Each structure stands twice: as C-alpha cells, then as structure tokens.
Amino acid sequence: xxxxxxxxxxxxxxxxxxxxxxxxxxxxxxxxxxxxxxxxxxxxxxxxxxxxxxxxxxxxxxxxxxxxxxxxxxxxxxxxxxxxxxxxxxxxxxx
Amino acid sequence: xxxxxxxxxxxxxxxxxxxxxxxxxxxxxxxxxxxxxxxxxxxxxxxxxxxxxxxxxxxxxxxxxxxxxxxxxxxxxxxxxxxxxxxxxxxxxxxxxxxxxxxxxxxxxxxxxxxxxxxxxxxxxxxxxxxxxxxxxxxxxxxxxxxxxxxxxxxxxxxxxxxxxxxxxxxxxxxxxxxxxxxxxxxxxxxxxxxxxxxxxxxxxxxxxxxxxxxxxxxxxxxxxxxxxxxxxxxxxxxxxxxxxxxxxxxxxxxxxxxxxxxxxxxxxxxxxxxxxxxxxxxxxxxxxxxxxxxxxxxxxxxxxxxxxxxxxxxxxxxxxxxxxxxxxxxxxxxxxxxxxxxxxxxxxxxxxxxxxxxxxxxxxxxxxxxxxxxxxxxxxxxxxxxxxxxxxxxxxxxxxxxxxxxxxxxxxxxxxxxxxxxxxxxxxxxxxxxxxxxxxxxxxxxxxxxxxxxxxxxxxxxxxxxxxxxxxxxxxxxxxxxxxxxxxxxxxxxxxxxxxxxxxxxxxxxxxxxxxxxxxxxxxxxxxxxxxxxxxxxxxxxxxxxxxxxxxxxxxxxxxxxxxxxxxxxxxxxxxxxxxxxxxxxxxxxxxxxxxxxxxxxxxxxxxxxxxxxxxxxxxxxxxxxxxxxxxxxxxxx
Lengths: 95, 639
Prior knowledge:
heterodimer, A: alpha+beta, five-stranded antiparallel β-sheet, globular, B: alpha/beta, seven-stranded mixed β-sheet, 28 helices, elongated, disordered N terminus
C-alpha cells in the first residue's frame, strides 16, 4: 500500500512520545518497499535517508489535516499526502 | 549559462574554501567561528538567494577566504537555494570558484549526511569532513571513529564543537595543507539503484563509526528523547496550535511594540535634524532639499531598520531553536490550498506590520514559485501605514456612532485584506506552472538553544543588506517624489499653494477626470499621489490641501474631519460621502502605493517586470473596484 494510505488507516492520535510509541509500535510501523511517482520526489526521499528496507513509524498528523509526521532513524519528517503517496510500504507487526 | 554581472568578479590570491552541508548541520555556526562573525552577505548574481563571503578571523591568519552556502541535501538541486549552492561551487561567482570544500555533517545524523559527503567525494573536490554536534555526542559518552571515516571517505575528518569552538585550529591547518591542484567536476546523477546502495553504505559506515556496543545506539536515542518530549506538546493538534499562536503573537507584538519607540526615535531625530536645517536657510531651495528631500528620504529608509532587525532576530531565534520547521508544518495545510507551503506564514503575517521586512522574510522560502506568490500577496496585507488612513476614513464614516462600530469595521478591513491576499495567491497559483521545488518534505531538527552570536550576526547582516541594497532605490524614489511636490513653484511660502502648483498638483489636475468616477476631486487626487511616498502621507496631504492648521494631532484630525464634511467640488457637490469614502477605503485596501515596497519587490524578485506588474495591476484593480463601489452605491441611492 502507499504510505499515505497507511497513515490514514493508522491510529489518528496526536504526536507520541517515542517511548510511548515504542509500546504501540505494532499499530504504526511501515516497511518501505519501493518508491513510485515523481522521480524528483523519489530522489529527495533517498537524500533524506529513506530507502527500501527502512521502517517508518507514523507519529500523527499536523492540524487541519496537514502533513503526516513520520519517525525513522532518529529523524522526524513531515510529508504531505501527495509526497507520502510516492512511497510503497507494507505494514509491520500488525496485531 | 550567464548569471548576471560577472564583471564584478574579484581576483584573490587566497585559497577559497566553501562550506557545504545539509540544512541544520551546524554549517553556519562553524562559519561564524572561522570568520569571527565578520562576513558580508551577497546575492548570487541573477538570483535572490544569498550566501556569505568572509575572510578567516585575523587571529587565525589571513590566507583563507570562506564561503557559506545555502544548505543542501545533495549535489542535485531541487530548490532555488540549493541551485545557488551548486552554482557557487562549480561556476565562477563574485569571488571566483572555491578550490576546496568543508563538508559539514551532523554527528547525530551521520548516516544521512554522509550521502552528500559521498557525492562531494566523487566530484574530486579537495575536501575536509567536519563532524558537528560533538557536544551532544560527548554528553552521552559517544565517540566517533574519525580514522575509519577518514579512511573510507579518503579525506581528513575533524570533530568540531560548536559551543566551545574546539577543532577549529586543526581544521584551519588541514585547510592550509589541502592540495587544491585537482580540478573538480560536476557530480554524475545516481540512478535509483545506486542511490539505494550508496544510502545503505553511508548508514553502514556511520554505524561502524558510531556504535561499538548496543548501548551506544541507546545513547544516541537519548539525544532525541528531549526533542520528542517537547514535540509531544508543540506538535499536538490543539496544544501545538495554542503554542503556535502564542509564539507568533509574541514575535509580532515584538515587531510592533519593541520597534515602535525606536522607529519614533528615528523619526523624531531626523525630523528634528530637518527642522534645524530649515532654520539655517528658511525659504531656500537647498534647505528644503536637504530637509524635505534628503533627510526625509533617509528617514524613509532608516525608519524600517528597527522592524527589519527585530523580525530577522525573531525568525533567527525560531529557526536556530528548531521551531520554525515545526511552525511551517503546523500551518502548512491552509497555505497548501493557495499553492504555498507553511513556510509562507511568517512573511505573510509580517506583512501586517510592514511589507518591506515581510518581503525580505520570504528568503526563507526555498521554492522560487512559492516565493513569488508570497511576494505578490504580501502588499495586500493591511500594513501599519494603512492604519492612519483607515482611522481617518472610518472616523468620517462613524462620526456620530459608538466607537466599537469603527473598531469592528477596522477588524473587517484586516480580514478583507487577508481574503484579498488569498484571492491573489489563488489566481497566481493557477497562472504560474509548478516548479520543481514545490513539494513539502520538512525535516524537523533537534531543539537546540540558539547561538546568540550567530543569530545576532545574521540579523545585523540582513538588516545591513536592506540598507545598502534596497535603501538607494527607496531613497531615489523618495527624492523624485519630493521634486514632484516641490517644483516648479518652490519659492511659494504657503504649503498649500506650493503643493497645488507643483508637478504632482498639475498631474492631479490632469488626472482629475480619472478621480471623478471615484467621487473625489483633484485635491484628494494629490493626496492619493502623495501617498506613494508612504500611505500615511495621505492624511497629512489632506491636512495641507484642506488647510487644516492645528498643530495638535487629535484636534488636527477633528478639524480635518470637519473640513472633509463640508468640502465641495467645483459643481458644489459634497466630496466626502459614504460612497466616496468607501471607495477610498477599497482603493487603499488594494492599491500598491508604497514606493519602498516597490523597491523591495524589485530587489527580492530581481525583476522590474514583477515589481512594476504588481504596481500597475494592484492599482488598476484598486481603481476599478473603487469606481465600481462608488458608482454602484450611487446607483442604488447611497450618496
């Protein structure tokens, strides 16, 4: 599925403390499978340290249905749904 | 490809070294240490993105020139500021092409930041790798294997402490011994497979250099825990917004309240100087030129300095603390509807104080398209210069009414200006094709205590850049306007006579047929023309042409309102009526009458077509709407 779809399906909570998030990892973890769409956006995703095999943790969404917030490798990244739709993921550790 | 005037290229025998790194990598902090905060900020020729040039601090010697480039994630630019970094590295600029680079990587983000370092290594640029944020790593007892990094990256690697400056001497020694005989080449773009492999290799190298035990990994996580805890509040859907409004309210009330007495001081000081000059040569052209032309024009430039400085200081603090990226994320959605991103919020809000610093604040927007749209909508925000005009015109409309009604109408005008700005941005969003930097992918950096030297130096540098570069344009236009309202009858003792017979007055009469559909006569026309010096000049022009003599400001307004109530045109019809005053309000709401803004719009867009297009289109729309409102109201019986 696309990362944007994954984020919309995940728990719509507020921004979580990382330790709290650790306890609820099953609900918001996505494994990057591949990139698709605008090559420029895909290129930037690589530059930001994303690549297939990286696990993303969905942290929440900015107000007014704004950008999604993801955590990976000690980085927090805000992505609009359109950009998140360039990442193909599979859900990790679904309960 | 040419990027403007390259004839200004300076030749230097010193070794030129550029600092390159991802945003928030600590590059500017290192640059400040190396130059002792003594540098000049320059625009890349043909672009409006700035970078800094400076010599090595004298205590280290004087054999190196340093260049601080805008942050970039890679050598393949995706925004205007990243493009400047690449051009500054690989093309001749004002200073000449750098012979070596310092690649700055954040030690807490080593895996990601080595990606750019690897690209740089492949270009063959003589380079030194500097690992920053060492204070944070040391606090957790983490050590980076610099020898391993040095071996794999094939360059010297130095640990730099941004708080104490440790590592500087070693860096300078390495830069001096850097072999600059090799010619670098542009980086060959990687395909997806290669990018993936390189990214993986960089992370593997970072892990080898950072983690000796599993505890080391946890130690690195500890650094992020504090940021994560703060984000829990500051990115919360409700609490986050509350703090966002509080922080922004503090910043903008600071611009209003802190800058206001300083601006008054500048205004008073230069006003006093002007009076003294007039006393030296009463009724002489030279004294009038010095006082009302030269000093008043200087005043028109310098009066903005406190606001600009405070705005940049505030933005600098928010940026270096890590909050600005969060603010842009929080407010991104409403702006995305206009084709913009959350980064446009601060400049747009600044427009309510003054368009001049607001236009300068758009430099923080990486996308050229977003910057143009934001620059276009900013002059529509109800700036503080419109306030005296609104106060006068609403005072006229609500003369016998309770004060709250005028207050409510004023609030309505502020919302209307926001609406007009949104409409303008929406229209431009449809007209301008999307550029390659229009996406929004925001890395939220660690929260850090701002380094005051860096923030202050940057604010001073940007303020100085306004005075030096936008100042002359504003100054020339102000002098031209003085000449227009002074000549040819400059010997007239009476101010009213002088203005009426001036070129501006003559223009007012020539264009009277244009003002008539707005329901006003040539005298108001003079006020509208004079308002191009500054909008608030409209009020003093009205006082001059309607012969208000009171010195006291409050009674001046009262007697001006009385004069306006009885003023008639040559046909004996009242000039100021509900319809004509509403027309004037509409006109002031939309018209671009501020020459300082036009000068700054040119400076920021680097295009007279943009600045003049904005000037003409805003004024035509303002005029058309004002006429439509006046004639429409009169058609339905509202005088």
